[in-house]
Recover the amino acids of this structure.
C-alpha cells in the first residue's frame, strides 16, 4: 500500500507524493537513470565480479558539487527514466547472470518501497545477491528499519561535521545530526564490523564513507571526531580523495579545484591519531576516474 505521507528522509516533507511533490520532486513512480556493472566501489564490494548498481534518479539532497548531478539534480526531467519493478528486475537479473553477485542501490532513500519490492521479486525468482544500500546518510530511522531485512550492507556517506558547511553546500544544516542518527541505526542492525566470505568479499556490515573536500579540512576533522565520539574507532571507514570539480561547485572557490596531497594527508593523519584502523583510502588520481557521464551507455568510461 502506498504511503500516505513521505517521511523517508531528513527533509520530512510529509507530502502524499501521488498528488504533491516534496524536495526530491519525485512522485509515486519509479525512476532509474542507469543499471550498470560498476567496478569503482570499495574493493571488498563485489570483487572481480563488480557491483550491479541501480542508480535511482533525483535525490533528497542537492549538493552543489555532486558528481552525479546529471541524474541527481531535481530539475532533471524524470519521464525518460520511468520504469517498473518487473522491468528493473529483468535488467538487474541480466547483470547478475553475467557474474555480479552484489546489488547496489544508489541514492535509494526516496524509493524505499520500490527497493523492497525489487529485492522481494529477485528473491522470488531465486536470486539472492548481497544488497548494498548506498546512501548520502540523510535517512530517517523509520525508513532504515523498513529495509532492515532486505539490506546486507549499508554504505552511508558522512559528508559533514560542520553544520554551517552542510547548510552552505547542501542546504540542510541539520545533516550532521540526522546522518549520525541514521548511521547509529545501521550499526544497530548490522553490527560494527564488516563480515567477509572466504574470498574476502563483504557480505554484511556498515562502511561509512567520507569524501574530503578541497579547502575544508576542518569539516573532515569535525566529521571524524563526531564519528569517533558517537561510535568509537572500530567502525569501518572509506576516506575518499576522488573529489573533482563538477556541477555548480566547479564555479565556486575552493570547490573549483581538486583536493591537494597536503589536505588529504592531514585527514588521514587525523584518522590515525583518533584511532581508526579499519577501512580504505584512495589515491589522489582517483579524481580522474570517478566522473560519470550518464548521457553515455557506459557512464564511467574514461572521458
Amino acid at each position: 500500500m502506498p504511503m500516505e505521507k513521505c517521511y523517508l528522509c531528513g527533509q520530512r516533507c510529509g507530502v502524499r507524493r501521488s498528488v504533491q511533490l516534496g524536495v526530491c520532486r519525485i512522485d509515486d513512480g519509479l525512476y532509474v537513470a542507469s543499471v550498470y556493472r560498476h567496478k569503482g566501489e570499495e574493493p571488498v564490494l563485489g570483487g572481480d565480479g563488480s557491483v550491479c548498481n541501480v542508480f535511482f534518479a533525483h535525490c533528497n539532497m542537492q549538493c552543489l558539487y555532486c558528481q552525479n548531478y546529471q541524474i541527481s539534480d531535481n530539475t532533471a526531467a524524470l519521464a525518460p527514466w520511468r520504469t517498473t519493478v518487473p522491468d528493473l528486475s529483468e535488467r538487474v537479473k541480466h547483470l547478475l547472470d553475467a557474474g555480479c553477485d552484489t546489488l547496489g542501490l544508489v541514492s535509494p532513500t526516496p524509493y524505499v518501497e520500490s527497493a523492497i519490492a525489487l529485492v522481494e521479486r529477485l528473491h522470488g525468482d531465486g536470486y539472492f545477491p548481497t544488497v548494498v544500500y548506498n546512501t548520502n546518510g540523510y535517512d530517517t530511522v523509520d525508513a532504515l528499519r523498513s529495509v532492515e531485512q532486505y539490506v546486507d550492507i549499508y554504505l552511508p556517506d558522512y559528508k559533514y561535521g560542520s553544520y554551517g558547511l552542510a547548510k552552505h553546500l547542501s542546504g540542510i544544516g541539520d545533516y550532521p545530526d540526522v546522518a549520525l542518527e541514521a548511521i547509529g541505526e545501521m550499526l544497530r542492525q548490522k553490527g560494527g564490523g564488516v563480515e567477509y566470505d572466504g574470498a574476502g568479499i563483504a557480505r554484511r556490515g556498515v562502511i561509512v564513507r567520507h569524501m574530503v573536500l578541497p579547502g575544508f579540512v576542518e569539516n573532515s576533522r569535525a566529521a571524524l571526531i563526531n564519528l569517533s565520539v558517537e561510535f568509537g574507532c572500530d567502525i569501518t571507514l572509506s576516506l575518499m580523495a576522488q573529489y573533482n570539480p563538477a556541477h555548480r561547485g566547479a564555479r565556486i572557490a575552493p570547490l573549483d579545484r581538486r583536493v591537494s596531497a597536503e589536505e588529504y594527508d592531514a585527514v588521514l593523519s587525523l584518522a590515525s591519531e583518533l584511532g581508526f584502523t579499519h577501512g580504505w583510502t584512495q589515491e589522489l588520481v582517483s579524481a580522474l576516474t570517478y566522473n560519470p557521464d550518464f548521457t553515455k551507455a557506459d557512464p564511467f568510461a574514461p572521458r
